[in-house]
Amino acid sequence: MTVIYQQNSELLEKIFSEPHSIRLPLYNMLIKNISNLVSISTDLGKCNCHDVAAFMHFLKTPYITDLDKNALQQNSSKEWIDYFYTQYKVWDGVSAIPAGKVIGFHNPQNTISHNGVFHSAFSMGGTLVRAVNSLTLGNGWKTADLTQSIQINANGTMDYNGASVVVYISDR
Predict the structure, then answer these.
(1) Most-buried pick from 15, 53, 78, 97 (CB within 10 A)?
(2) CA-CA distance, 158 to 167, in Å (whole number)?
(3) pLDDT averaged over the chain?
(4) First CA to last CA across the chain, in angstroms?
(5) What angle do CA 26, 56, 131 make, to 5 degrees?
(6) With bands split at pLDDT 50, 70 and 90, how would you rate the model's confidence at 46?
(7) Strands 117-125 vs 102-106: parallel, antiparallel or unpaired
(8) Burial label, 33 (beta-carbon count in 10 A; 0-12, 13-18, 19+)
(9) Which pairing describes strands 151-152 and 158-160: parallel, antiparallel, or unpaired?
(10) Closest Cα to residue 130, out of 37, 36, 55?
(11) Could you tell me which of 50, 55, 77, 78 has the C-alpha nearest to residue 9?
(12) Is 40 within 8 Å of 132 (Cβ atoms)?
């Protein structure tokens, strides 16, 4: 499923053709979950966590290039993993994460999910994220606190649901 799919294509193509000065207020409303123009659950409800993180990333991007538009129309679901997580920083479990970043959750032992990344979220700043389709790592575009969702071990490693996890902060 691409971020721009048949049922929402007209709305989203209009949004991404608008200048940043128009998109930024929508981004700010969605960050606070108060938008009446676009609803994460209604307009992007058929998308998965990676699609929603990509939508928010491009909404805040000052200039949408033709390459960006193509990515929005062509990439879907796990294809965003290669797009966002080829260049990243690893979260240390303590430091504040800047707002407006795409966050990936990687299980080093997972060979089933694409490159081991099993979930994407969007950072609100500090240790807060918003996402869809996960329980404690963000669901229904509600805020989740990573320090409450992820167990940080004494040796600095992290676990989620009993499995090792590495948190990526995308450099895009």
Answers:
(1) 53
(2) 9
(3) 86
(4) 21
(5) 115
(6) low
(7) antiparallel
(8) middle
(9) antiparallel
(10) 55
(11) 55
(12) yes
Please state the length of the chain: 172
Alpha-carbon distance of 146 to 92, in angstroms, equals 11
Beta bridge partners of 158: 152, 165
pLDDT value at position 103? 98
Which two structure tokens, joined as six digits, stand for 85? 């997580």
Look up residue 94 and give its amino acid: V
Distances (CA, A) of 136 to 38, 69, 117, 140, 169: 24, 31, 16, 11, 18
> Which of 45-49, 63-67, 74-78 shows the lowest per-residue confidence on average (mean pLDDT)?
45-49
Could you tell me the residue ranges of all domains in the chain?
9-80, 85-170
- Distance (Å, rounded) from C-alpha 5 to C-alpha 25? 23
Amino acid occupying residue 76:
S
Do residues 52 and 86 lie in contact, with contact meaning Cβ atoms separated by under 8 Å?
no
101-132 per-position pLDDT tens digit: 999 999 998 877 677 899 999 999 999 999 98
